[in-house]
Each structure stands twice: as structure tokens, then as C-alpha cells.
Design a protein that fits this description.
single chain; alpha/beta; Rossmann fold; 2 domains; five-stranded parallel sheet; two-stranded antiparallel ribbon; WalR-like; transcription; Two component system response regulator/histidine kinase; transcription regulation
């Protein structure tokens, strides 16, 4: 992988952290640890993590509340949170998803399952980030293009020199006010009604005689 993924492991039991960390350490991940919800939030506030493994049952602030607090911050809305839990009741699982979790890892942790879920969510997160970056670049390009088009249109409309565009068949498709005046018309719209540009070039311009 080009850059190390950063994973935060949160559990109030040090042995549980050790078990998970020992499984992940050979995958090249960069890891940080927290043993309570407040410390976890502080870690997230000062570091950009790519995935968070979060225990549910912790004293003080439980995993559900930690996850809710994480999701309130714009920068953490898409970071995958996987709950570590021995609770398999439907209500607990639903509560976790409602709090903002993306998946569950059941304790005792199965090594193959943990690695598969972590890898899957890291890849999905990377893909989402890349898509967001692409969309941002496209939006910037669109803005720049609109600015260029506006500047060109402003120059075209306000130019002292006459300018026009026509099709190969001779139909004028665009002209600026200066060119309309040169041809003796009051506005570009009058010229656009002419079927063939030759009618303009070879007929006597409609200039009032004095």
C-alpha cells in the first residue's frame, strides 16, 4: 500500500487491545490505542484515522455515545467505525448502526474475519475519499471554465471590433453588437434572422443617408 492506514483501537481491557493489535500488526497498519471514550475522542481530534475499532461496553462513555460524538464532526462522518462486542442481540446491533457504526466484529475475535472486515472497509473508505477528491477537482474545473467563458463573453460583447461566427453554409450563428452596427443594424438579433451571410456582405448596408 502506498501509505500506511491508521487504525484506532478502543477498548477498556488492555488484553483485548493486545489481541486485536497482534492480529493487525503484520499487515503494515499504523495503530493507536485508547482505553476509554474520552481519550478516543481526543485521539481522533488530533489525528486522522482511516478506521476505528470500538468496544461497546466501556465505563463512563460507552461505544454508542463515542460513535455518536464522532459522527457530529464533519471530518469523521465517513470514517469507518467497526464495533468490537460480544453482544449479538438484534437490539444492540441496531443501536450500533443507528449510532453510526458501519460493521461489527464479534468477540472473541476471529483473525480471518477481522482481517477481512478491516481490509474491506479500508478499501471502501479509500474509494470514497478518491471519489470525493475527483468530484472536488471537477467542480473546480467547472468553476474555472465558467470564469473563462464569462470573460470571453464579456470581451466579445464589449469589443470595439466587429466579430461574428457562422456555419459553413453561411448562416451567422453569433455576432457582437459592434459588428451589427457596422452592418447597419441596431442589434445582433436582427442579423441572426438573415439566412445567408452573403446577403449581408454583398447587399448595400442599411446605413441612413444624410
Amino acid at each position: 500500500m502506498p501509505d500506511k492506514y491508521k487504525i484506532l483501537i478502543v477498548d477498556d481491557v488492555p488484553k483485548n487491545i493486545q489481541v486485536v493489535a497482534s492480529i493487525l500488526q503484520n499487515q503494515g497498519y499504523s495503530m493507536a490505542f485508547a482505553q476509554d471514550g474520552h481519550t478516543a475522542l481526543e485521539q481522533v481530534g488530533s489525528n486522522a484515522f482511516d478506521l476505528i475499532l470500538l468496544d461497546i461496553m466501556m465505563p463512563g462513555m460507552d461505544g454508542f455515545e463515542v460513535c455518536r460524538q464522532l459522527r457530529k464532526k464533519p471530518g469523521n462522518k465517513d470514517v469507518p467505525v467497526l464495533f468490537l462486542t460480544a453482544k449479538t442481540e438484534t437490539e444492540s446491533i441496531v443501536n450500533g448502526f443507528e449510532a453510526g457504526a458501519m460493521d461489527y466484529v464479534i468477540k472473541p475475535v476471529n483473525e480471518a474475519e477481522l482481517l477481512a472486515r478491516v481490509k474491506t472497509h479500508l478499501e471502501l473508505y479509500r474509494s470514497r475519499k478518491e471519489l470525493i477528491e475527483i468530484n472536488q477537482r471537477l467542480n473546480e474545473e467547472i468553476k474555472e471554465r465558467k470564469i473563462v467563458e464569462y470573460r470571453f463573453r464579456s470581451m466579445y460583447e464589449n469589443a470595439v471590433q466587429g466579430m461574428f461566427q457562422s456555419t459553413f453554409s453561411g448562416r451567422i450563428t453569433s455576432l457582437n453588437p459592434a459588428y451589427a452596427r457596422i452592418l447597419g443594424y441596431d442589434s445582433p438579433d436582427e442579423v441572426l434572422n438573415i439566412d445567408n451571410v452573403a446577403d449581408v456582405f454583398y447587399d448595400t448596408p442599411r446605413i441612413a443617408l444624410t
